[in-house]
Amino acid sequence: MAAFDTSRPLGAFGHAGLIGNIFVSALDTPRTNSGLPLARQIPTLFVAAIGAVAAWNDARVTRKSLSRLTDRELDDIGLTRSDIESVARR
Predict the structure, then answer these.
(1) Which residues contact 67 (CB under 8 A, 6 or more apart)?
(2) Is 66 within 8 Å of 88 (Cβ atoms)?
């Protein structure tokens, strides 16, 4: 299904009409949780939030541990100081 209606000519609204079509189709897109009752959505959101906090903390601990190493120690494991952030986000 196209993101906008290609069967309508641009007409008087030109590209603004296309943008409006895209916006309306985005509003009409069904959401995955829309059919679930609120009582079932809240625990899912809570678990996702806890997971995000745990991932953030793991990255923080990794970043802190790698930052304490000397340049030589980082080189021994094949990293540089500029690699620390990307390694911590994995």
Answers:
(1) 84
(2) yes
